[in-house]
Design brief:
The chain is α/β, with parallel strands linked by helices. It contains eight helices and eight strands. Helices cover 32% and strands 25% of the residues. Strands 2-1-3-4 form a four-stranded parallel β-sheet. The protein has a four-stranded antiparallel β-sheet with strand order 5-6-7-8, covered by helices on one side. Strand 3, helix 5 and strand 4 form a beta-alpha-beta unit. The longest helix has 14 residues.
Length: 234
């Protein structure tokens, strides 16, 4: 959310796309500042249907049941708000210049990842930015293709093209602690963290132990971390 207002151009050209209606409602309530509210708040369902057309949205299992229950309990109003307050959704007009998709699939249904591709396909001129989307898990086939064939096709076709703009992953083993880190367009860095005695007590000292243009595999990054730790005699 702190990143969203920094984009150039018409604020309405930035869509903040949340995993579901409730997340959108909470975000709109928690970030009331004018610069944030100037952006377009929506959810994956609405964005996919608007850009991809009727029937393009792939609904998670069980969502129709909950939606139907909400409509029944809503009586004459037709919506009891079990999934969130639809008033939190902004009207969607022309396709956005930037679609900032917040945490799709990460802790939610796998269909989120499938729908993000549909958002991109529905607006080829839109820059799609995924925040905390667990793309390592998706691209590493954590979900077996035999059980999730549609997601596997999305990975090969879409997610393997993504560039890591801001990446931070903890690494630890055998008493070594550190991070795999990158800020685009800088190279990838493996950083060793070492506790040292400072003038005011213990502090953590960061040491860059490896720099590469290509992202290292986790085990290679860990090996670099352990080598640096052992070389320092720690």
């Amino acid at each position: 959310m702190q990143l969203a207002p920094t984009f150039q151009g018409d604020p309405k050209g930035t869509w903040l796309i949340f995993p579901d209606l409730k997340e959108c409602e909470l975000a709109k309530a928690e970030w009331p500042g004018a610069r944030y509210q100037a952006a377009t708040f929506t959810d994956i369902s609405s964005a996919t249907s608007h850009l991809g057309g009727e029937g393009s949205y792939v609904a998670p299992w069980g969502s129709n049941l909950v939606g139907g229950l909400s409509n029944v309990l809503g009586g004459k109003d037709g919506d009891a708000g079990l999934l969130g307050d639809r008033a939190a959704l902004d009207d969607l007009g022309v396709p956005p210049s930037v679609a900032l998709v917040v945490q799709p699939g990460n802790g939610g249904p796998v269909e989120d990842w499938i729908n993000v591709e549909k958002v991109a396909d529905g607006s080829p001129g839109t820059a799609v930015v995924v925040i905390n989307g667990a793309l390592d898990k998706v691209r590493g086939y954590y979900y077996p293709a035999v059980f999730f064939p549609q997601l596997a096709q999305t990975v090969d076709r879409f997610y393997k093209k993504f560039e890591s703009v801001l990446y931070l992953k903890s690494i630890s083993d055998k008493g070594a602690y550190g991070w795999l880190y990158r800020v685009y367009p800088e190279p990838w860095q493996v950083i060793l963290q070492t506790p040292v005695e400072g003038p005011r007590g213990m502090v953590v000292e960061d040491t860059i132990v490896q720099v590469t243009d290509d992202r290292p595999e986790y085990l290679d990054a860990l090996a670099a971390l352990l080598k640096a730790k052992n070389s320092a005699g720690q």
